[in-house]
Design brief:
Low-confidence stretches: none
Number of domains: 1
Number of helices: 3
Strand content: under 5%
Distance between the termini: 9 Å
Oligomer: single chain
Radius of gyration: 16 Å
């Protein structure tokens, strides 16, 4: 069975983007929540500075959605290349 690459990419984008959105929003509500994790994301995503602001939440969420899309495409493509053809 092969994966639908578009569905895989959208699934990863929703899951990763949604997860990062929840963590960033929780950091806005509860000061210091997952700050080290957000600092790590700031070192990966250019333009994101892990500050407690709505703008920062939007930037990191958009980066995570794009990252999820790319990761989903790569994973789906690689899986489809490695799985034997259905007989």
């Amino acid at each position: 069975m092969k994966f639908d690459i578009k569905a895989m990419a959208l699934s990863w984008a929703i899951l990763w983007g949604g997860s990062i959105l929840l963590v960033a929003m929780a950091n806005l509500i509860c000061n210091g929540y997952a700050q080290h994790f957000l600092d790590a994301l700031a070192s990966i995503y250019p333009g994101y500075h892990a500050t407690r602001s709505i703008g920062g939440v939007i930037v990191v969420t958009l980066y995570a959605i794009l990252d999820g899309l790319i990761g989903g495409v790569i994973f789906g493509w690689l899986y489809n290349r490695l799985v034997p053809a259905a007989k």
